[in-house]
Amino acid sequence: MATDSKTVHAPPKRANSDYPLIDSDPHLRRVFGYARPSDYAIAGGAAAASPLAFWAMERVSPSHVGRGGFAPVMRLATAIGLIGGLHVLYQRSCNRFYGFTENAREVEMDTREMVDKVKKGESLYGTSKVSAYLQGVAARNSRYSELFIHVLPWFNIVNHDQHGVDTAKYYQQAERELEAERLAKAGSA
């Protein structure tokens, strides 16, 4: 079935949440860019937990593997900790995009970012070299993917326009701000 670039997409289903939905399929850059300092602190603690726990277990009950046995296992424990820390960071940030946890700061950041893009005439979610059909495939495959990331690591790395939110609010806000700027210029002239 052939599709063209003007195909209208049905809006994706929304998950029930207590806070506003920012994006049902946030790009990987936005997830890490919108993460709070507390997310990085918690992720750092989670990353450090694995090697620290392994070190403590070795102190309490030594394995006596010899000189060359402890270091490779300690490197593995550190790698597992880092992957776990990144998972925690990604999960906490995505939960705010989905509206599952308090997200007032991120809503404000999103609004500011998108309104500024509208004012500059840029595409809201970036431009893509991928066909519209493949953008849709990517969106359908990665929407709410964070909820299953502990089983299958899957991230949105494709720019597309299917994010589950009504983008008209950004254009209306930009129009209001541009009108206010015009009135301010007219009043000062």
Automatic annotation (TrEMBL):
Membrane-crossing residue ranges in chain numbering: 40-57, 69-90
Organism domain of life: Eukaryota
Annotated keywords: Membrane, Transmembrane, Transmembrane helix, Ubiquinone
Keyword Transmembrane: yes
NADH-ubiquinone oxidoreductase 21kDa subunit N-terminal domain residues: 16-102
Keyword Membrane included in the entry's annotation: yes
Stretch list, region Disordered: 1-20
One Pfam family it belongs to: NADH-u_ox-rdase
Domain NADH-ubiquinone oxidoreductase 21kDa subunit C-terminal fungi, residue spans: 112-183
Name of the protein in question: NADH-ubiquinone oxidoreductase complex I, 21 kDa subunit-domain-containing protein
Organism of this sequence: Aspergillus bertholletiae
